[in-house]
Every structure is written in C-alpha cells, then in structure tokens.
Amino acid sequence: MKRAITLWSESGGVGKTTMATNVSAALGRQDERVLVIDLDPQLGSLTDHVGYQELKTGDRDHLGHVLLDDEKDIRSLIVETEDFDLVPSHEGLANIESEMAARNTSLREFQLRSALKSVAGEYDYFIIDPPATLNVLVDNALVAARNVLIPIELTRKGSISIEGLEDTLDSMERGFKKFDDSFELGILAVVPNEVGDSNIYRDTREELETDGKPVTPFGVRKRDVLKEAWKNQMNLFEFAESDETRDLREYEGDLLANFEQLARIVQQGTVDAVEVEA
C-alpha cells in the first residue's frame, strides 16, 4: 500500500475535516492520485463539505457494508470530486461497532486496511478522516494509515490533549503488535490550527516544541473564508478559483500556502520538509 494518513484529534472542533479536505485537494493539484475515505457518519463530515451529503442516507451500499463483508469491493463506492476521489461516509456507520460485535467479526480493526488493498495500486495517497470519538472507526483509520496528522488548538487544553493522544496511540500500538509484530503508529506532524495572535498561542507552541513534539513551523490561521468555502461545498482551492465566489483577500492567501506545505509534509514524511517562520 502507498502512504496513508489519518487526521485525528480526540478533541472535536479543531478543524480536522476542513484540514483533511484541503490537504487532499493540495495533493491532488500536484498530480497525485488521492483517495479520501470519510469514516464519520455524523452531519458535517467531509462528505457534506464537498457536496455529496445525499450519499450519506438511504438504502444503498456504503462503507459499512464493505467493512462487514469481505466480498464487497470498496471500488464500487468511489466518487470523483474536483481534486480527489472520495469514499463517502453514510449514517449506517453509526451502528458499525454493534454490528461487528453481533457478527463476531474477527480482527475488526483491520477491516479498512484489508478493503483498501484492492485499490492500493491505483492511488498515491490515502487520506482518512474518522470521527473524533475513539471507537472502532478510529481504530480502523489508525490501523490502515499508521501515520497520524494531528490538528491542535494552541491552548492549554490542546497541549493536554496531545499528551493524552500520545498515550492512546502508544497503548494501541502495543495492543496491535500482538497481531502484527511490525505494527507501528507514528505522529507525522502536530499542526496548530485556527491560530490567533494572543500570547497563549505563542506560549503553547513553545511548550510543545520544548517537549520535542513534531510541530509544524507554521500555524493555519483562523479565517472566515474557510467557513465560506464549506458553505459553498468547495475546498479552498476551488473557492479561490470559482467565478461564483469572491476573490481571496491578500491576507487569506497564506491558507493556500499552508495546505500546500502540509501536502509537502505528507509527501516527504517529515515536518522538516518545510522551513517557515512560525
């Protein structure tokens, strides 16, 4: 399998899905073949962001069926968007944990990784966006990707959440090694997101860097244009180019550069891929 990344934070509301959407778009615009897997059954997931919310309801085949049945091919679920291909989420995923338990599904945390093998040669990158709440969907995302990109709020709460998340990943790694000796979970980067100008942002960044966390040398600013792009069901690159939307203001252009920098980190596998003033 080619490189796979999951964006995850145990704290909700940190802009995880917006980041996943725009990093995927940035990769796609560099002629990378990108498959995005939306594992979040809740309203406001990545599938909604890019305008395919109608696929999240109704009596149709969906990702839950693929995770429950080895005979189902994930390829049949893929839809094409402007900059990447998408496996949409579905409300039926909300019941996946109980359904797996009822069916006594073996190695249930490895189902997504197994399902992606059929399309492994067709894509350069797999970007997985699970829900924030730790459950079997998050387990599947982490097992399939094994590389985690973590958006973080630059506050004391965010700093504490990183420590808790590291403990969670360490515990999961030890557990999964029982089934696969080579299993490793790694934090690719910690990304300060929705950053402002207060002293607490600077202080928290310094604490994280002092503790040796792989913090990106830039933060993604909090900008209303990201909400506007979401409202228009576009990624930010589409929004900036569309004749139906306003032009980006000069101070908003840094967002496009940020997502391109994150794409470079994904491609090169290290935060050292970019060197930017904090």
TrEMBL record:
<dbReference type="Pfam" id="PF13614">
    <property type="entry name" value="AAA_31"/>
</dbReference>
<protein>
    <submittedName>
        <fullName>ATPase involved in chromosome partitioning-like protein</fullName>
    </submittedName>
</protein>
<dbReference type="InterPro" id="IPR050678">
    <property type="entry name" value="DNA_Partitioning_ATPase"/>
</dbReference>
<feature type="domain" description="AAA">
    <location>
        <begin position="3"/>
        <end position="176"/>
    </location>
</feature>
<dbReference type="InterPro" id="IPR027417">
    <property type="entry name" value="P-loop_NTPase"/>
</dbReference>
<dbReference type="InterPro" id="IPR025669">
    <property type="entry name" value="AAA_dom"/>
</dbReference>
